[in-house]
Amino acid sequence: MAKKQYDLLFKLLLIGDSGVGKTCILYRFSDDAFNTTFISTIGIDFKIKTIELKGKRIKLQIWDTAGQERFHTITTSYYRGAMGIMLVYDITNAKSFENIAKWLRNIDEHASEDVEKMLLGNKCDMADRRVVSKERGEKIAVEHSIRFLETSAKANINIDKAFYDLAEAILDKMPSHSTPDQVKIRPVDTEAPTKGGCC
């Protein structure tokens, strides 16, 4: 049997309004590519990338969800089993930031309680068009006890850091040394021999 190419598998989810750059973030991280002509994600898309972290090979299965309301019912099922969720807004789009509260409610409704969350203010290279201050992003992250970064898929700012930080947070929460190879076998309780009696 072929040896597994990774030690752990983490399912990550990118959520946020349509057009905030979720797909660009995903492609920048997985393929180190940036394309200005992405069409809106229809339903769901995913990429896989294996990273090295703390001596472990971790396979990241990253799901990119559609931001449009009409795909909402499809995407809610993908929250199940997600270990990490990135909430993305666009710093040049106030509405996408205001909707973060709605996305957080969706996580509460559909994701597991212990899911790791991270807030990303994307398109930070477009400083001249910024309408959401970094302080506002930090404030909402603090209120919800989640990590926060400003990113740019175009200029490749904090993209790798975001994924590595999120993966590390998931890894840190896992019980240490619980690899399948180290399953302890409990000795079978030996019963005291019964006295043999005659029929």
Count of distinct strands:
6
Number of helices: 6
Q: Which stretches are poorly predicted, pLDDT < 50 over at least 5 residues?
A: 177-194
Based on CA atoms alone, the radius of gyration comes out at: 22 Å
Helix content: 25-40%
Distance between the termini: 53 Å
Strand order of the largest sheet: 2-3-1-4-5-6
In short:
Helix content is 28%, strand content 24%.
Describe the structure in your own words:
With 199 residues, this protein is an alpha/beta fold. The chain has six helices and six strands. It has helices at 22-31, 72-76, 94-98, 100-110, 134-143, 159-173; strands at residues 8-16, 44-53, 56-65, 84-90, 116-122, 147-150. A six-stranded mixed β-sheet has the order 2-3-1-4-5-6, with helices on both faces. Strand 2 and strand 3 (56-65) form a beta hairpin. Mean pLDDT is 84; it is low at 177-194. Belongs to the small GTPase superfamily. Rab family. It comes from Steinernema hermaphroditum. GO terms for molecular function: GTP binding; GTPase activity.
Q: Which helices and strands occur, and which strands form pairs?
A:
Blueprint: E1 8-16, H1 22-31, E2 44-53, E3 56-65, H2 72-76, E4 84-90, H3 94-98, H4 100-110, E5 116-122, H5 134-143, E6 147-150, H6 159-173
Parallel strand pairs: 1-3, 1-4, 4-5, 5-6
Antiparallel strand pairs: 2-3
Family: Belongs to the small GTPase superfamily. Rab family.
Main location: membrane
InterPro entries: P-loop_NTPase (IPR027417), Small_GTP-bd (IPR005225), Small_GTPase (IPR001806), Small_GTPase_Rab (IPR050305)
